[in-house]
Amino acid sequence: MIVLMLGAPGVGKGTQADLLQKEKNIPHLSTGAMLRNAIEIQSPTGIIAAEYVNSGRLVPDSVVTALVKESLESEAFANGCILDGYPRNSSQATELDDILQKLGRKIQVVINIFVPEETIVKRMLERGRKDDTEDVIRHRLVVYRNETAPLLDYYGQQGKVVTIDGDNTVHSVFGKIQDVLSA
Ligand code: ADP
How far is the CA of 169 from the centre of ligand 1 (A)? Predict the structure, then answer.
């Protein structure tokens, strides 16, 4: 099963994807986590990605798509995947379709977690990651609105989107996600 997590930065996609990974034994593929790791170990990808991630801009599509493609083609993700942080714009969505089509696989469900923006900003300031300063957060929200949110229409037209209220406890949001997946 391929589950796509959508929603603005800070809505809790990563937290929920981790819980889902444990519960369902489906591996979590987070481009944000992969990029942060690449930056930390200063790999060639990390060296390119650092300035984008730290300023809240999207890392070039070709860089991120290469990471995702390599993962999805690997044995570790052969039985399923929880995709978190990719695709983030329409060209990445097209690339993903292409990768999945070649693998003979498809996305079963898109989980859209919704949280009001002011709550998001508060949460991220508390989290305090390096890219969680107020200016960078605001910029990521603009990028989300302009580039990522339109994907809700793209997947909505395919009847795949389920929207979940994320302004609730981690446990209760997870309960709702489990309900969706068992439906
Ligand atoms: P958040 O959703 O809280 O912004 P992520 O961990 O998903 O956190 O992403 C952190 C940063 O990593 C993004 O702001 C962006 O710079 C980069 N990034 C992650 N995924 C992608 C992607 N699919 N395309 C381009 N850049 C990405």
Answer: 23
Cα distances from 24 to residues 84, 97, 99, 128, 135, in angstroms, run: 16, 24, 24, 29, 37
Residue 35 burial class via C-beta count within 10 angstroms: exposed 0-12, middle 13-18, buried 19 and up: buried
Q: Is the minimum distance from the CB of 56 to ligand 1 under 6 angstroms?
A: yes
pTM tops 0.85: yes
Question: Residue 61: which residues within 8 A CB-CB, separation 6 or more?
Answer: 89, 91, 92, 95
SS3 of residue 176 by DSSP: helix
The count of other CB atoms within 10 Å of the CB of residue 154 is: 16
Cα distances (angstroms) measured from residue 68 to each of 16, 31, 140, 168: 20, 7, 21, 30
> What digits encode the pLDDT tens for the residues 107-135?
999 999 999 999 999 999 999 999 999 99
Evaluate: CB of 86 within 6 angstroms of ligand 1.
yes
Which of helix, strand or coil describes residue 116? coil
Q: Which domains does the chain have, with CATH numbers?
A: 2-182 (3.40.50.300)
